[in-house]
Every structure is written in structure tokens, then in C-alpha cells.
Design goal:
This protein is an alpha+beta fold and about 80 residues long. The protein contains three helices and two strands. A hairpin with a 2-residue loop joins strand 1 and strand 2. The mean pLDDT is about 80.
């Protein structure tokens, strides 16, 4: 069984990769929901112009199809 390590709050937990991948799309969708809320009524993540915050997210969004995750409309329009 393939294992992976998850680090957080000073702890390392070893879990099966299949377990992580099963829950990963749900975690990404929850994160995208927060992102969609931040974009509500705004063209950019921070301020009134394109910034490093916007640039930092773009590579992440290009991997959504590989995870079989669809971006919410506000996020898709922004990207």
C-alpha cells in the first residue's frame, strides 16, 4: 500500500494515498468556494488591479480538470 505524509500543526501523519485522493476534490471545492466568495463583486483578489495574489492562483486553477473539479462560475470568469 502506497503511503504519503501530511504535515500540519507540527505533526506528521502517514496515510494511504488512496485515502487522501478520495477526499482531495472535496477539499479543493471547499477552497474554491471561499475563493468565489472573495471574488464576489470584485475583478481581482486584492485591490482594483491584477496582482501577485492573482498570479499565485492561476497555476492551481489549471490543474482542476486533472482532479475532476469544476471551478465555480465566479472563479471560472476570473481565471
Amino acid at each position: 500500500m502506497k503511503m504519503t505524509s501530511i504535515c500540519g500543526l507540527g505533526q506528521v501523519v502517514h496515510v494511504p494515498i488512496a485515502s487522501v485522493m478520495k477526499h482531495f476534490p472535496q477539499e479543493v471545492e471547499a477552497h474554491l468556494s471561499i475563493l468565489a466568495g472573495a471574488l464576489q463583486g470584485h475583478d481581482y483578489l486584492v485591490g482594483d488591479r491584477f496582482s501577485l495574489a492573482d498570479i499565485a492562483y492561476l497555476p492551481f486553477l489549471h490543474f482542476l480538470p486533472l482532479m475532476e473539479v469544476t471551478a465555480p462560475p465566479a472563479v471560472a470568469a476570473w481565471s
